[in-house]
Structures are given as structure tokens and as C-alpha cells.
Amino acid sequence: MQRKKSCKTPKQPLQDRHKIQTDLSAWRKGGRIDPEKSVQGHQSLNYQESNSKQDSLEPALSYFAKVQDRVSLKSSSALQRHLATVESIALQRGLPPEAFGVLLNTALSGKLADTVNTRLLKSLIPESVIPESSVVSSVSWLCVSKCSSNIQVLFLRWLITVFDFIDHKEDLHALYGIFFQFVQDGKMCPYICHLLYLLTRKENVKPFRVRRLLDLQAKLGMRSHLQALLSLYKLFRPELVTITLPAKTKTYFKNVEGPWKAAIKIIRQRKQEDSPVPQPLFLGTVRPQSRKRKWNTQLMIPATSTHRNHLEEVREKNSDLYSTDERFPVEQLQTFPQLLQNIHHLEFPSQMGSVLTNPLLLHYMNCVKDESVYLRLHFWLGQTLQEECTWCVAANSQYEEEFKDFLETLCRAQSFLHEGLSPCEEFLYRSLPLWDGLCCRSQVLRLVSWIPLKSFSEMKSHLYDPLAQLFFTSSLYFKCSVLESLKRLLQNWLNSQMVHLDSAADSQIHSSNTTISGLVNVVAELIHFVGMISTVALRLESNHTFLLYFILDFYETVCDMYLMYNLPLLIMPPAGVFYPMLLSMDSVSLNQLCYIMYRYRINLVAAKENEQSKKEIQQFRFSNETYQEYNQYITAMVGCLWTSNAFQKDIHPQGLRMDELLTKTAMEQHRTSLNIVYHPAMIGYAVLFLQQACPGDTTFNFSLIKGKKWNWYLEYLYAKGLEGLKLFIESSINRVSQTSRSKAGNTEM
Amino acid sequence: MESVDGATRSLPSIRRLSRGLPFGRARGRFGLSPSGRLLLPRNADSQTTAFLLRKHWALYSVTPLYKFSSAHLKAYAKLLSAFIAAEKQKGLAVEVGVELDIKVAVTSLPDLKGSDQDEDAILVQLSLRSQAYQKKSEEKLVWSGWFCSVYGDDLSKNMPEDFTCLPVFLANGAESYTSIVGSWFQKTFDCCFHRLAISPLSLSWMAAMWTRCKVDKTASAMELVFSVPHLPQPLDILYAIHPEDAKALWDTVQKTPGEITQEEVNVFMDCLYSHFHRHFKIHLSSTKLVKVSTAIASAHCDGIIKFLQSQYVIEVLMLLTELAISQIE
């Protein structure tokens, strides 16, 4: 027992429990029937016991389900025990939905003494929701009046307090007439009126009900609860209630919150403290609000329906004022099937900002191509980002977490919509120059990757310049994340451009400002920018492998643009990127480079074939320079990996003079010492290969790898997973010589 | 827009002004002659503007209101009053249309606008009914706020029908009411309110522009308040200039009548600064201009404005509209 206790509630210190119990006794004092003494006794008695019984509500429930008539509390220890269990669990965690049926039945059936019934009713604190069925069945108990009037009143007070926790209310609405009957009951009348006030819909307002209320009022005099109900009736059906009601507003209903409200609040607070993730709230859609310093900024807006229909109706003097009209309220939109069923009479929430946190509404937004929808979101988002940015507005620095969450939501919404929102773009352009590169880094970089593709010439000053400044001065990991985000930006652009090409085929929507050549220029500008910063970064970080990986990853997208994305553009990596890759010390990068060069080749060949086969004048041709550049690279690669003939000619226009450099190393035969055996990235494989091929030989005579062994070595490398190398060698080394399309590749074994 | 009278001819040039940095262009922005004659086609009726004068108005920019219709102002007043009552009672349900302690009036002010493209200004007034005399019209105005747009065409010209552009909102009264009314508008018309701060650059524009306006009676001094940054204790410097001196200075600075350029404004301010430096050896250029007050109006950098001359209300509002639009866009 003790052990169990300690592991069940490790986080709740004893003091906490004491506090709750003082709260408990506090509200008990206010209760009508004061079972204080016995309760106190129980509590001290069952104090330890009840804690260990945290999870044993079931026995108590089954006890109450079967309990016989008139069991005395004093004489039955079982009743005492189970009652105490229910009470303590209720106050600790609230009762689960299934408990309500049983306990309400027991309490209202009059089987037990009122003291017990009162205590049961007072412990009906919901953990999550209250099933409607349990409420409906207890109303039937109310009708047979098995229980005392005090219990009836207590039940009604409970019902009013927990009204919002009832999971459905349709059946309850159906009982409207039954509830209305109780208006006659003097003691229940105020509470019944309050309940009816909560339940009343327009269709419930009937002439006979109005008459009954008016009769009652004539009999009893002006009573605030009757007035409340009457004025609500008058609101719905002004023609039925012709009497003038006093205009002065005061609180119509006494505070009926009773003992439950505080307990519910405590349980909810505790729940929020316990769970690291915010619980989905069962009440309303508002997230727990953090302290808000300004009245007009709310980062996460709950979705609420518009009330505009009412206004229209007011204008038309329509008698259907405030009727439940056909619009499907967004608050009720919970599931995807609901969305599908109601999509024709769904209305956007009153504040568009709320769609960001609501995937269903984002779906809906995607379907509805309405300019005003985007415009509303645009204004809200633009203002909010401007006002809340923690590094632009100095006073906001303490709200960084909140802003981060907001940006996170924004990122999720954008990737959900598969498009960037233009206020985010403007926000980036405005705030990047001021950004420290740390605050909300991952969110900002993800926003960057969703900047829309537009033929927009000012990318350089707005995006590239501030980004480059941060890039050069920040850590290796920041550089890598920037490269990653730019790769995603490129991919997003290429994807959107594909969609654009498809849609442009049948319509001329994107005519003026988004021409293909404009888009191609923007994409090319991005690739050149990445080439530039990669070159610098490789030098700054001394060709760090990690960096190489991200750069190669970027070019893996670039090399396939023509075939994969149908974009007439291929750009080779700059020499400052290519040569460090080629001479990289690790085989993964080299292998990746081989793969990329292979894909370049496939794309270039395809482009050439297309140019030749289609005689029509093509708008876009790859310039000869691209082919030349490719050929230069291929020559260098073949020289380094295959022919042992590296850098024979200084072919690079800027004069890399690799040959001279290599001469300076004073290495013998430097010219012939680079191939797949001697290449620094490959030599490890060569050693292992030799160990396997000639187990006895410890001299590592690499020159043995030739002829047949060369082929075996190749097979060995392929088997080690160097797929890129395989593709490269098979494509560029044998076939190039046959087609002799490329001057450079005409080397053969 | 061919002609209403000669004055309107200068309008197209106003409308052509493109957004960008407010006042940042070297082109003429305001078709005002140096004599102070307003070239604006409309002059707000001094009766309607009377209530605006000599009050401090907190400035807000407001994004376009969605589905706002000036045909429903009565209904809006009803709903807003219910909303205020509900807010006051901490969320208790309140009926719509019942008489409440706070009376809300929403009316339109057709005079407060620049061109015909501008929407009518909307005035919201909250008045407290005194408990003692319920039936009598014993009402005390506790808060007022108004939306307006004066030559706000840059914002409104491409706006879809559902949107109403009234980019400037001015509020006078307790902030708590501003917040309730603002929240209601935000919720109901999906718009955003933001405080409209006035940058020192804009303040210097106001100083220059208001200097050249002529006021009949012997006007009060033009006052500039500067705040010295980076001091342990706040230090403000008040620089008062006789309006006629300021006007004389401005007349020597301005090259083309009817046009004001950024350069002229800079020269004007630099002259004032150097004069001050000659006497006090303080470089005002390294302090921050926080407040400008002239006989026309006074403006504080926190976004507070006070109108003093009804015939210049429209002109000041035009400037504020421009500032608000540049904050919105």
C-alpha cells in the first residue's frame, strides 16, 4: 500500500492535499446541509487510505449501483468508505463521465438519506464531460419526486453550474417542456427559470408558456428570474410578450455556482500543470491566455462564428432574428467528415487569424478561392508580425516564447497550405536585417523556405544580403541550416513553378509579371547565391565534411531541375565548390559528387536531344558555357579518378593552377598519383581491398591494382555502396567516348 | 474629377503619390499654397469638427473593416452596447437592445473626408446615463472615438467591395473603453488596431507644414519638445519659437510654392537647430523630437494629436491617413 502510494503520486506533496482539503471544508460550510462533522471525521480517518485508493472508483460505483434502500450512514462502514472514496477522487481529479449516471441515480432516487445524497451531489465534479444520458435519466427521477425538495434544488444548481460540461444538449432541449412544468414549484422556480434561460431557443417560445409565466408573475409579483425568462422570450418573439419589462439590467439570477465551480477550477488548473502539452479544452476554444499586455494583440485567436447574419436580419426587420439559422458554426467544426458534410454552409470565422491554428479551416480556405479571405488574413498577419516581432520591437523581448510559438504555427500553416503567405515574406524582408540569427532560428529559416517565387528583382537586397551577412559570421551549424532552408526554398519554388507551368498551359493567368524567363532568372539568382556563399563557407570552415554534405544536398536538387521539374535551367557548381568536393577526404562526399555529375550528364544529354529533335525554335537553350563548364569538370574528375592524369591542363579560366600547386607539394609523380586507388577519399578502400585480395602481403603495393584486379576493385567499391561512383563511371567513362559528344569525356580504359 | 472649382485640379497629383517612406520623396506631396489657402475641395463644417478640437486624441491605425456597412450603424450601436455591458459584467449574458447604463451612439460624419472616394467618417460615442434621472436625457459623454479616411485612396483603390477603408482611428477617453470598443470592432469586422506612433521625421514634417499655415488671431508660439537620449534622468528640452519668426524662416526655405520637399524640411529644421546651438551649445540634431505644437495642432511621438483649428482638421487628417496607411501596408 505504502509503496503504491508513493509511486502513484510522486509529484504531489502532502501540503498540496492539505490545501485542497481546506478548500473543501471551506465550501462545505457554505453548503445548506452541513455534514461537516462526519466529513471531518472521515477525512482524518481515511486520509491515507483514500490516497492509496486513487484508482479504485469502480468498487465504489458498483456499491452505489447496488445499494439497498435506507442504508444508514452511521451504521454502514461500507457506505462511509465508498462515499469518502468518491469525494476524494472527485476533488482530486474529478469524476470520469461514466460515474455520473450511477451517482445521479443514487442521489436522486431517494434510497439514501439526504445527508448522503447531498454529499454525492456535491462531489459530482466532472473530469472531462458529463454524458447527456445521465442528466436525462436524472430528470426522470426529478419527475417522480422520490427525493426531497432540497435535493431537487441542489441538483438543479449543479445542472446550471456544469451546464457547459454536458457533452450534448439535444435531448435536454427536448425536455424543455418538462422543465417548464417545474416553474410552478415555488422552491425550484428560480433555478428552473435559470435553466430554461440557458436552454431556450426561439422555437421554445410558445404563447401558452408566455401566458403561464405572466400568470405566475401576476401571482408572485415581479421576480427577477421570471423577468429574465420573459425578457428572453420577448427577445425571440417580441409579438408574444407585449408587456414592458423594466429596462434596468441587474443580475437576474443569484449566484448558483455552489461548491462546484471552485473545485472544477482547481482540477483544471492541476491538469494543466501536470501535462506538459496544453490539453485540448472541452470548454470553448480559447487557449489558456497568457498575460496580455495589449488589448488589441492576440497571437492565437479562437475561431468564432460571425454574427453578421443577425445584422442583416436586423436590417430587414426579419422576425427570424437570432434564430438558429442554417450556417454551420465554426466552433462546432471538429472533424473532417463534418467539414465535408457542411462545406456548403460553412462560414469563415469572424476573425480570419484563427484559421492558422485550425487545420480544418485551412482545408476550407484552400478550397475557397476568395480574395477577401486572403486579404483579411493578410492584414491581420501583417500587423501582428510587425507588432509582435521580438527583435524589431524592443519592448517585446520578454514574449519571445510566445512569438516563437506563433511563428511555429505560421510555419505549420504554410507547409499545410503548400504556399507562403505574403505577409510572412514582407515580415522577413523587414526583419532579417535586424535579426541576430538566434532568436526563433528554426522558425525564421523555415519561413525563409516558403518565400513565394515571383519574378522579383529585389531579392538580393531584401533576402540575400542580410542572410549572407549572418551566414558568414555565424557558426557552422547556422551555415548548414541556412543551406538546408535555401534548398527547401529552391524545392518549393520548383514545385510551385511546375504547378504554374501546368496551369499556364490552359490559361494565361500568370501573364504579365510572372514570365517563365523571369522565374528562371529568379531561380538562377538563388543558385548563384548559394554557390557564392558555399564557396566562402568552405574556405571559412576548411572544407568541413558536414558543410560539404549540405552543399552537395543543395546541388542534388540543382542538377536535376531540367528533368525533374521541367525547368529549362542547369547551373554547374562554381569551381570553389566543385574542386573541394573532388579532392574531399571522405568517400561519402566524393560519391555524392559522382552522383550529381551523373545527373548533370543525364539532364544535359536530355536537353541536347530535345534541342536537336524538336526543330522548332526553343525559347530556352542551355548556353554552350554550361556544356563547357561541365566538360571541364568531367575532365578533371576523370583525371582524378580514372586516368591518373589530374590537372594536366589548367583549364579553369580563373587559373586555378592546380598543376603548379601539386608540384609544390614535392610529391613524386604527383600527376599520376590521383585515381580511384590513390585518391585520399578512396585509399582506405584500396587498403582494405588489398588486405582481402592478397592476405599475405603487408607492403600495400597499390600498383598491384590494375588489369583484372582493377575491375575487381571496382566491383569491390560498388559493393561497398558507392552507387554514385558506379553510375558515374558507367555513364561518363565508357559511353562518353562512344558518343564523343563531349570532348572532355573521351577517355577510355 | 474634372473640376468642381479651381482648387480640385491639384488633386490628381495628390492621388498619384505612391506609398513608400512617408514624406520620403522629394516630390511635392501636398497641394497647399504657402499662403495657407486650403486647396482641398472640402472643408469640414466647423460645427461637426467643433467637438474634435482641444482634445487629446490617441491615434490608431486600422486595417480595412470587413463587411462593415454604414447602413447598419443603429444595429452596430445596439450590439456594441450589449458587448460593453457584457464586458463590464465579466462575460455574463446580456440581452441585445435593452437599455443599459452606457449608451452607445454610432453615427457617420460625412464632412470628415477628403475626396469622394473616401468613406464617411464614423463616430462612436459612449455616454453614461446617470442613475438618478433615468428617464431624462441626463447623459455624460465618457468616451468618443472616430474612424476616418482623408485621401486614403492609396489603400482603398484596389480594395474589394467587402472592405471599408477607414485607416485612422482616434480615441478620447478611458483606455478601458478604447479597448472594449476596439476589441468589438476587431471581432466583428476582422480588422486590426495598432497604435500609430509618429516618427521624429514625420513630426518635423508637421512642424514645417504647420508653420506655413496662417492663423488669424495672434497665435501661440510654435513649440518643439526634444528628449535627450541615454541619460539617467529624462531630460526634455522645450524650444519655443514665435510663429511669425518660424513662418519667415520657412518662407526663405521653401522654393516652390505649393510643394514641400524632404530637403526643405531638413533645411528648415537644421536652421532651427543651428540657431539653438548658437545660443545654448546643444546639438538638437542628436536628440529626439518628441512633440510639436503649433497653433494648428499639436502632435506627440507616442501617437497623440490635438486639433486646434477647425479649418485645418482635414489637412492634419490627411497626413495622419498617410501615416496610418504606411503602417498598414
UniProtKB/TrEMBL annotation, chain B:
What InterPro entries has UniProt attached to this entry? Answer: CENP-L
Per UniProt, the keywords (alphabetical) are: Centromere, Chromosome, Nucleus
Localisation per UniProt entry? Chromosome, Centromere; Nucleus
Where does it primarily localize? nucleus
Q: Does the keyword Nucleus apply?
A: yes
Question: Which GO cellular component terms are attached?
Answer: inner kinetochore; nucleus
- Similarity remark: Belongs to the CENP-L/IML3 family.
What PANTHER family does its record include?
CENTROMERE PROTEIN L
Protein name as it appears in the record: Centromere protein L
The organism that produces this protein has a lineage beginning with:
Eukaryota, Metazoa, Chordata, Craniata, Vertebrata
Whichever gene encodes this chain, its name is CENPL
